[in-house]
Design brief:
Rossmann fold, five-stranded parallel sheet, binds 2'-deoxycytidine-5'-monophosphate
Length: 219
């Protein structure tokens, strides 16, 4: 078993930025489990499956093979052998990932992939259920959150910077809706593990959050 740092929290709390930074500074690999759910979501969208069709989603899992690789330290997602990393970051894929991740077959499919990585490597793994379900014995567990207003503002700034037209109130509504779904689903809901350290990043810089996490780790 490698050394593992589990970071869970809602969308937009800064998990991936922080996890990537901590991984780089510790020399561990960064595992973005949300990207794996997004990878399967791309498959469901390609098949034209409705996000509410749980049976169709479960059936479509049978001909989807998601795997992960690294190119210059950056995580790549492959769907049936094709690198689909550039397709993952759209709202459509995010919404499908959020909906389809409540289907037990979807979670089961990705669980072994995630555990296998943590068995072989030192990892910083981020997601929604890492400390509670995927790696209950993780060496360090963090629940990283921020207010919905802060998270919406960060997302808004990010989209504006990329030149994508967007509406702040709509983004905040989407974030609240996504939280609601991620926290209230029957299987592996987003929850703070009893032994996780809570960090609210609303008024913290990236550096401050990373340092708070590094302080919890072995030297
Ligand atoms: O972190 P993200 O936005 O890329 O994740 C996309 C969706 O995937 C998220 O809405 C919920 C789901 N997810 C999950 O259920 N469990 C994880 N460990 C990671 C993501």
């Amino acid at each position: 078993m490698g050394y593992s740092i589990a970071i869970d929290g809602p969308a937009g709390a800064g998990k991936s930025t922080i996890a990537r930074l901590v991984a780089r500074e510790k020399g561990y690999i960064y595992v973005d489990t949300g990207a794996m759910y997004r990878g399967l979501a791309v498959h469901f969208l390609k098949q034209g499956i409705d996000p509410g069709d749980a049976d169709g989603i479960a059936a479509a899992c049978e001909d989807a093979d998601v795997s992960i690789g690294y190119e210059e330290g950056s995580q790549q997602i492959y769907l049936n052998g094709e690198n689909i990393t550039s397709l993952l970051r759209t709202e459509e894929v995010g919404n499908m990932a959020s909906r389809s991740s409540s289907v037990p077959r979807v979670r089961e499919k990705l669980l072994s992939l995630q555990r296998d990585l943590a068995r072989r490597e030192n990892v910083v793994m981020d997601g929604r259920d890492i400390g509670t379900c995927v790696l209950p014995d993780a060496d360090v567990k963090v629940y990283l959150t921020a207010s919905s207003a802060t998270r919406a503002r960060r997302r808004y700034d990010e989209l504006r910077e990329k030149g994508v037209p967007c509406d702040y109130s709509q983004i905040e509504r989407d974030i609240i809706e996504r939280d609601e779904r991620d926290m209230n689903r029957a299987v592996s809901p987003l929850r703070q593990a009893a032994d996780a350290v809570l960090i609210d990043s609303s008024d913290m810089t990236i550096r401050e959050v990373a340092d708070a996490i590094l302080a919890l780790c072995r030297p």
